[in-house]
């Protein structure tokens, strides 16, 4: 999970600063008004039969859109709400992180949104209306929308690269994130492509690779890497991270299989629709109820007496790597009469179903394991190695084969730093919900 952005910090005492930020955003938007779509093959759609025919003749990469890698992660939210910010030993007055978003505020998805999204592609506005935040769902627990969007975008990028290298194999270079990252792709097996189709093989492999990259992001942030000026260690493996990542992977997979990504506009529209549909099926609670959900687990999963970026702000970490991910629900933290009462109140949003919805990521297609088709290699950054990431003797590289042993080391360190039982959702001895209590001074 990324550190808080300007979009998630409320300016309570500085109207001048607020005006300055808005003016800067509008200026950036104006500069991009003449941009064209990054990819558009709607005039020559890449249908499955054409792709398969091209594959066995030696795939012409021109038939596959050359989609650029997302330039940056969406800056968004830490697992907390209405919490203060601290720089060094000084509290930042007038600022607090507000993470909660309502389902009616999501806006339109834009590929590679980054910190500021422009809308020069036929939309009515100048600045894109895409928003991110955290909401609570009846079946999926807390969902971090920025994580969903980022992983959807990266999955699409990976499909593009896999398809363009399908017959030859090759190297997929990725921007640095906690280290130098690249993927070694072997030529796809023609028999596998003939059986399942190039689109399915490519999509399934991209889904698996993106999920591995999302696990690495959590590992890197635990060991001190950050894309922002804040430490992101409090966000490493927070309760909703990996489930939200996988939800984004699945959304992109559907868009790709439905052939809804031939152009950037088509993709944005498809993800916008699929995201709303997924959140609706998971049973998104109204915004005020999502705020209340954070209050239920204040004192258990997070601590409102701490400030960003104190690592003790997030008290429990979800270290389950899957491949089957079960969301953490409020009832997993602590059962109470309040929860049972509000479960009845929000049964309409939940469609009467509060049962958790597990998600999974496949590690093979047919009898072929994805790890034999592609290898993700990472050379950790100096900050990561300096903070003690365990590496295989004699190696300076990390692959997904190493992830579980690294996470086991993180679990041990987290138990020492945050207390035994950190990797489970249940309240530990001495932990109880602060729901209904007045905010502590530590909340800014």
Molecular structure report:
With 444 residues, the protein is of the alpha+beta class. It contains twelve helices and twelve strands. Strands 1-3-2 form a three-stranded antiparallel sheet. Strands 6-7-12 form a three-stranded antiparallel sheet. Strand 2 and strand 3 form a beta hairpin. Helix 3 crosses helix 5 (198-222) and helix 5 (198-222) packs parallel to helix 12 (400-418). It is globular, with a radius of gyration of 22 Å. The model is unreliable at 2-36, 89-95, 115-126 and 440-444 (pLDDT under 50).
Alpha carbon gyration radius: 22 Å
Low-confidence residue ranges: 2-36, 89-95, 115-126, 440-444
**Biggest sheet architecture:** 3 strands, antiparallel
Give the termini distance in whole angstroms: 21 Å
Strand order of the largest sheet: 1-3-2
Oligomer: single chain
Estimate the mean pLDDT confidence: 84
Class by SSE composition: alpha+beta
The portion of residues assigned to helices is 25-40%
How many DSSP H or I helices?
Answer: 12
Shape: globular
Taken in chain order, the helices and strands follow as EHHEEEEHEEHHHHHEHHEEEEHH
Query: How many beta-strand elements?
Result: 12
Strand content: 5-15%
Write the layout of secondary structure elements.
Layout: E1 9-11, H1 15-31, H2 48-58, E2 83-87, E3 90-97, E4 134-137, E5 141-144, H3 145-164, E6 170-174, E7 179-185, H4 190-196, H5 198-222, H6 241-257, H7 264-282, H8 287-297, E8 324-325, H9 330-333, H10 337-345, E9 359-360, E10 364-365, E11 368-369, E12 374-380, H11 382-386, H12 400-418
Antiparallel strand pairs: 1-3, 2-3, 4-5, 6-7, 7-12, 8-9, 10-11
């Amino acid at each position: 999970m990324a550190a808080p952005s300007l979009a998630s910090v409320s300016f309570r005492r500085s109207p001048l600063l607020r005006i300055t930020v808005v003016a800067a955003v509008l200026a950036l938007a104006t500069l991009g008004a003449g941009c064209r779509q990054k990819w558009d093959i709607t005039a020559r759609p890449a249908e499955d039969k054409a792709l398969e025919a091209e594959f066995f003749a030696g795939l012409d990469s021109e038939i596959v859109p050359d989609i650029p890698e997302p330039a940056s992660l969406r800056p968004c939210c830490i697992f907390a709400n209405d919490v203060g910010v601290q720089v060094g030993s000084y509290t930042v007055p007038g600022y607090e992180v507000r993470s909660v978003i309502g389902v009616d505020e999501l806006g339109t998805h834009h590929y590679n949104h980054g910190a500021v999204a422009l809308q020069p592609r036929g939309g009515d506005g100048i600045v894109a209306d895409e928003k991110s935040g955290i909401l609570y769902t009846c079946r999926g627990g807390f969902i971090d929308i920025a994580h969903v969007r980022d992983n959807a975008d990266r999955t699409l990028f990976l499909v593009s690269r896999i398809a363009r290298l399908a017959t030859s194999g090759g190297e997929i270079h990725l921007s640095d994130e906690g280290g130098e990252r690249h993927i070694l792709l072997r030529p796809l097996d023609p028999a596998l492509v003939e059986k399942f189709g190039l689109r399915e093989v490519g999509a399934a492999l991209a889904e698996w690779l993106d999920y591995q990259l999302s696990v690495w992001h959590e590992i890197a942030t635990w060991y001190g890497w950050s894309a922002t000026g804040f430490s992101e260690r409090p966000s490493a493996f927070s309760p909703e991270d990996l489930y939200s990542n996988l939800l984004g992977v699945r959304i992109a997979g559907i868009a790709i299989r439905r052939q809804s990504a031939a152009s950037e506009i088509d993709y944005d529209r498809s993800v916008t629709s699929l995201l709303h549909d997924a959140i609706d099926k998971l049973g998104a609670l109204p915004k005020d109820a999502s705020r209340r959900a954070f209050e239920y687990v204040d004192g258990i999963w997070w601590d409102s007496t701490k400030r960003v970026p104190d690592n003790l702000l997030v008290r429990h970490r979800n270290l389950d790597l899957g491949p089957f991910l079960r969301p953490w629900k409020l009832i997993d933290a602590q059962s109470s009469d309040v929860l049972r009462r509000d479960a009845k109140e929000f049964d309409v949003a939940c469609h009467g179903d509060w049962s958790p919805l597990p998600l999974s990521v496949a590690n093979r297609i047919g009898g072929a394991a994805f790890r034999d088709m592609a290898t993700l290699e990472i050379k950790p950054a100096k900050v990561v190695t300096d903070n003690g990431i365990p590496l295989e003797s004699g190696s300076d590289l990390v692959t997904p084969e190493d992830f579980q042993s690294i996470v086991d080391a993180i679990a041990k360190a987290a138990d020492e730093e945050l207390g035994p039982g950190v990797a489970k959702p249940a309240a530990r001895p001495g932990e109880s919900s602060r729901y209904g209590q007045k905010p502590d001074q530590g909340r800014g």
